[in-house]
Amino acid sequence: MSSTLSRAIKSFPNRFDPDVLSTLPAHLQETIRRRHQVLGPGYMLMYREPVEFVSGQGAHLFDHEGNDYLDVYNNVPCVGHAHPRVVEVVSRQLAAVNTNTRYVQEALVDYAERLLATFPAGLSRLSLACSGSEANDLAMRVAKYHTGGEGIIVTRWAYHGITSEVSRFSPSLGKGSPLGPGVRLIDPPDPRLVAPGSTLAEHMRAQVRDAIEDLERHGFRLAALVTDSTYSSDGIFTDPVGYMPGVVEEVHAAGGVYIADEVQSGFARLGEEMWGFARHGVLPDIVTMGKPMGNGVPISGVVFRPEVSDDFGRNVRYFNTFAGSSIPVAAGAAVLDVFEEENVQQRVLENGTTLRAGIEEITRESPYVAEVRGRGLYVGVEIVADRDTLAPDRGLAEDVISDMRDRRVLISGTAKAANVLKIRPPLAFTSADVTRFLETFAEVAKERL
Amino acid sequence: MSSTLSRAIKSFPNRFDPDVLSTLPAHLQETIRRRHQVLGPGYMLMYREPVEFVSGQGAHLFDHEGNDYLDVYNNVPCVGHAHPRVVEVVSRQLAAVNTNTRYVQEALVDYAERLLATFPAGLSRLSLACSGSEANDLAMRVAKYHTGGEGIIVTRWAYHGITSEVSRFSPSLGKGSPLGPGVRLIDPPDPRLVAPGSTLAEHMRAQVRDAIEDLERHGFRLAALVTDSTYSSDGIFTDPVGYMPGVVEEVHAAGGVYIADEVQSGFARLGEEMWGFARHGVLPDIVTMGKPMGNGVPISGVVFRPEVSDDFGRNVRYFNTFAGSSIPVAAGAAVLDVFEEENVQQRVLENGTTLRAGIEEITRESPYVAEVRGRGLYVGVEIVADRDTLAPDRGLAEDVISDMRDRRVLISGTAKAANVLKIRPPLAFTSADVTRFLETFAEVAKERL
């Protein structure tokens, strides 16, 4: 099946290789063969041995035999798989009605007010969409309209989505997806890339300034800088902070806007704040959010400073049929309920701290672990062949991921070289889950790291 | 609120005018004021007096006071508002698990096989997305990749969606949304536009040939012709058929593909066939679908001829997190269940025939009705100031829509001049619903038409 696949596809982290299909259990083989017959372009499975789940609870997933897998990867079911509150609220709404935003819906207004209350003053308009890609697509439409520019700055291996427009500023999609002519790439905030004598803040600011200069030299006025506060696909670079104020100054001086892509870092993923940008001490012009927003019911959002969005609103028609209709809004509101009732953010902070400390402890002596990075319930472990050269070791990373999966603990990989373990459980992760993860990780690390 | 709005916004059919907000009931005013404070660009309400619903059943919607409105407009709740089968299946799935397509899901494969079985041979690959816009965006990405072209042909007032890319080939969005440089417009298949001595087939074919020639003269190779088989936003032109084979021949001869946008016309809306394109005796290269697919749970799809999509699949990464996950797939499968159990298509055919015949009967003598068009449960009534000049009368159309709404029957308007009544109930529309609609319409027509 795969011999003619491009490097962009083959290099996807922790991708199941269809060439080994015949080694899988018979029923799994059969389902995957059928799948291959009917699904369109681009569908990939994860893990050397893919897995199917029939139920879930908290951070646990259960297969056909009732085996209990610990989910340390999925960020969509943020308050937990099949959370009873979300199930109840959404089921009730399904049984009542689902109207779109061209009808009056007090619940939509209530939700918008509640969600906007988690933002700093100034970010006061909410538009809803269906996916993170649609949110970033709308954000960029508005940014281009408002600024009159076409230039875009993103990090070197960023991922922002898969619409035609957004794929053109998502370099991590690889060579099959060409970048737009007005897109410029900068390093993620990796302190190891800073020249001696400089600082991370200077390095980031200089890169943005150079990118703007190069854009302008090519006739592109800046529309936007877009950053994911976790730099997830770049390899997870949450710290240190402190460089953003200078970066945003450059962006604004060039007439551009700063779009904070919170699809990964939003909804308290990083523990300290509801939104990742808040750690950086800057006010974005536009904020986008997605995956965890409805705990699996498709909903995404864009929050604007009105000065940035109101001219678009006066001139451009935008209606997204499903977005903002009663069912996704019910799901979004239920997630906010659970955040309050279970004090989710505090739990993320506490369990995230233990999780990261445990991972650091386990890997401290390993010659194959260059760094442990991350914050809250998002941790990256950079796997290298050699701590001095930092040469990435994708094979070893995938051995670890696969060994973990065989022990029924689900993580995956990230970064261009696919050598960073991506440890990102549902926010429902408990202290018992942390313990189970660390015990299993210690076993695997003992053999592999 | 509206004095600085563009013509594109103000001209939206049956749009609530915020300037008359103070004439509404107090609670409604309050909700709309709050809504205006928190929602982002582009949100519009329908009807001179907007309305809020708290429950629904079949083609009926109920407001806070329990008033029973007949829904003759919404195509998303296709098998009926809050259909018990869909509620049950989706609620059960919500309580079980929701994994994405990077895990094995037999239910996804089952659904894809079932849905593809409704297509003619050759259309055999399904990709899922979240919205019709995402479906059309992916369709165009694949079309451009496959053909190497950038040229697009659509009808003059077509609507295909709201991503950056799709908005550039959706002329009905109006002047605020510029068309792409490689987009060319042709007339919808309105026989009244055909020159004496010619035929509709010749007229349509000649327009496509001219558009291709003009594109090539400007350096654009053709990527795709995209048509909505109902020509919904153009004003609803379902008949006569017979012109598409020649049109598609031109498209293929120029190296382009034919994308059938079935967001409006799919899922048996037109009664005779599951898919609108099937009435035209042509095989599309790509088919897109959306709104009714999950009865309100966000799900959309793209079906490809493998020859068109497989090269994209080998080279380009595409992953849509929510799309194809367990909840939307459960909703999609439940809709197909209901189609089989209730023989939905037969019901559409029967009730559609009665509906249209009744509307024709009521409007036959009216000096203000130029034509009744449509098929199945999609009927358009063109309202004019004068049957000879065909001068559109938007005001009169909106009077009719508003009078119907005041009698608790919901329809809306379409076409560039907003003068075509858009009569498009859920497919759950019963013969009793047809009777109620026709009685109310006869009352309003007696006064207005």
Automatic annotation (TrEMBL), chains A, B:
* CDD domains reported in the protein's UniProt record: OAT_like
Q: Where are the transmembrane segments?
A: none
Identify the Pfam families for this entry.
Answer: Aminotran_3
Supply the Gene3D superfamilies for this chain: Aspartate Aminotransferase, domain 1, Type I PLP-dependent aspartate aminotransferase-like (Major domain)
Under Gene Ontology molecular function, one entry of this record is: pyridoxal phosphate binding
Keywords from UniProt, A to Z, are: Aminotransferase, Pyridoxal phosphate, Transferase
Q: Is Thylakoid among this UniProt entry's keywords?
A: no
Reading the lineage from the top rank, the first entry is Bacteria
Q: Which PANTHER family does UniProt cross-reference here?
A: ALANINE--GLYOXYLATE AMINOTRANSFERASE 2-LIKE (PTHR45688:SF13), PTHR45688
Q: Belongs to which family?
A: Belongs to the class-III pyridoxal-phosphate-dependent aminotransferase family.
What this protein is called in its record is Aspartate aminotransferase family protein
* Source organism of this protein record: Nocardioides eburneiflavus
